Amino acid sequence: MIRFALALPLVFGLSFCDSDQQPTASDHTSPNGMPYRLIQMPGNEYAAIIAAWPHDWIWAEGRNPATSYIGAQLILAGGAEGYPAGEVVERFADMDANGELPVTADHLYGMLAAKKGDWPEAIAIANAHLARPSFDPDWFARIRTGFAQNMAEAQSQPTQQGFDALRWAIIGDHPLRAMLSLDDAEAFANLSLEDLRAWHSATVTAQPEAVVITGDITPEQAGAGLDALLAGLPEGESQMRAIVLDYHPRQILLHLPDSEDAHLTFIAPLPATRLGGDLEDLILATALGGGEDSVLFASVRDGLRASYSFNAGLGNYTRENRFLFMTGALEAAKLADAVDVVRDAYAGFRDKGPDGDIKDRVAPLRESFEQTRNYVMNQGHMELETTLDAFATGHSLTMLEMLNSLPATDLRNRLQGHWPEAQDFVIMAVSPDADALPGACVITRPEDAKDC
């Protein structure tokens, strides 16, 4: 899990920064005994609560992998006691408030932001939907159908099938893979309201794993707001589970005769963010494959003499299972050459590190961190991720100082000490030509990748 909220929209906060009133962080406990971190942001007209509930639902065999996605959407849109289905969306829009329930393999996140004057009402609305959702059957059918259609469209794309094959190869036949891929169309058809109610009761409880509250509010206001949000929720317990993934290096080719182009992906594990180093990782991934001035972009364009682009990024299957990937589309005839070009480019990058002045590398991040300090949702999300990683209170507020003091030697040390070597990647190709990658394990269905 990347601890930085750089990809989030910069919303719900002021558009300026008063250097004399910087955010401060502290630990508190609500009157009902719930611990939380408070980031006080003087002068900000919004306040936010960001919580993370443990989410181990999918680890048990026999549970529908689509449950949490549909359940989270239905909680928000399907109405609650005193609130007709669909009303909360319009009411929040009128209030300039925002509520979200993103789902990952590890957590159900709850994010609520509103202007300080509307905060009590926004909390009351959110509490009703969390504690007493209506599970409206018409909205259930609508959300389920829309989600199923979107996934069916995604599954028809060769690129998506390649990513599915990667998950089969690395995760295997496991409930985690089923949740991440959602490649079983019957999962949507078989999903019931009873499944959603059982998931809701087990997941949305009075004991989030972590809570961060942000805004120009006092600890008394923050604690009262948190208790009001969690009022009426059941007691609960959760046991996070571990999984061993199979990253042994190999080459796999998914043969799809109707695919117009080939697609190539490299993937290898990285340390979890709780171990530190993800600031360096973000800078390095951007230098490796983050745009037209990146190593991969230039190497693939020059090495293959064609107008291809190749990207690099960071992702995770769970918080403990994080990875580096390099991916791009190309002509099937040049697939084998592309493997060599990308591998050689990566090997050179890992050995030498990024070119240029580190000040130029960190400048975009510095701007993002400076902006984040003005926005309650983004700053709260960053602090929540550091909380889940067990970093000290206010760690998200130290990012600028860490960035400004980061030496170039740390980037090279991170590359050579923690990034995979060039031969350590699982390589997945999707191609209309079954012979495009000599020596690869050739399959015709994503699920066959588990046997490669």
UniProtKB/TrEMBL annotation:
InterPro entries: Metalloenz_LuxS/M16 (IPR011249), Peptidase_M16_C (IPR007863). Pfam families: Peptidase_M16_C. Residues 190-355 form the Peptidase M16 C-terminal domain. Signal peptide: none annotated. Gene3D superfamilies: Metalloenzyme, LuxS/M16 peptidase-like (3.30.830.10). It comes from the Bacteria. GO terms for molecular function: metal ion binding. SUPFAM superfamilies: LuxS/MPP-like metallohydrolase (SSF63411). This is Putative Zn-dependent peptidase. It comes from Roseinatronobacter thiooxidans. The lineage of its organism: Bacteria, Pseudomonadati, Pseudomonadota, Alphaproteobacteria, Rhodobacterales.
